[in-house]
Design goal:
The protein is an alpha+beta fold. The chain has a single domain, classed as 60s Ribosomal Protein L30, Chain: A (2-Layer Sandwich). Strand 3 and strand 4 form a beta hairpin. The chain starts with a helix and ends with a strand. The model has no long low-confidence stretch (mean pLDDT about 95).
């Protein structure tokens, strides 16, 4: 039997949450042609932030990496809500990561691996993507991480 993104999620013990509703004047996803853009997602678990604060401050590298993973879970939940079946994802084209951190923090890439590793675990080779990771002084709700995505959809 062929492995699907949904079966990989199950094997990882993950259940996608109800997608978060935008809190301002934007939409969670925009599809144009075969491209789906997912707005930045925070590390929400059961409707609450998994962690708050900044890297290089109160948030550990391990906690932030897990926060990036949960942000990616929320990105995937938005994709599923938009297209119905995750098997329609032909490619994770790009992920963007925003890491709230102090000026001296430099391990941004390690944090973002929490999201990237999950993309590959769920989508297989189609989950290998281009990526940008940027340190920022703050994020909404004092979240330590925010992840956005660009997907090719069949």
């Amino acid at each position: 039997m062929m492995s699907t993104p949904e079966s990989r999620l199950t094997a990882l013990g993950l259940v996608l949450p109800t997608p978060a509703t935008p809190v301002a004047n934007y939409v969670a996803c925009v599809q144009t042609g075969n491209t789906l853009v997912v707005s930045g997602q925070l590390p929400l678990l059961d409707g609450k932030l998994l962690a708050t604060g900044k890297l290089g401050g109160a948030v550990s590298l391990e906690a932030a990496t897990e926060a990036a993973r949960y942000s990616m879970i929320n990105v995937i939940a938005q994709v599923k809500a938009a297209v119905g079946d995750l098997s329609r994802v032909k490619r994770v084209v790009r992920l963007g990561g925003f890491i709230a951190c102090t000026p001296e923090f430099t391990a941004h890439a390690t944090v973002m691996n929490g999201a990237s590793d999950l993309a590959v675990a769920v989508f297989g080779d189609a989950g290998r993507h281009a990526r940008s990771t940027v340190g920022v002084p703050s994020l909404p709700l004092d979240a330590p991480v925010e992840v956005e995505g660009l997907f090719e959809i069949s």
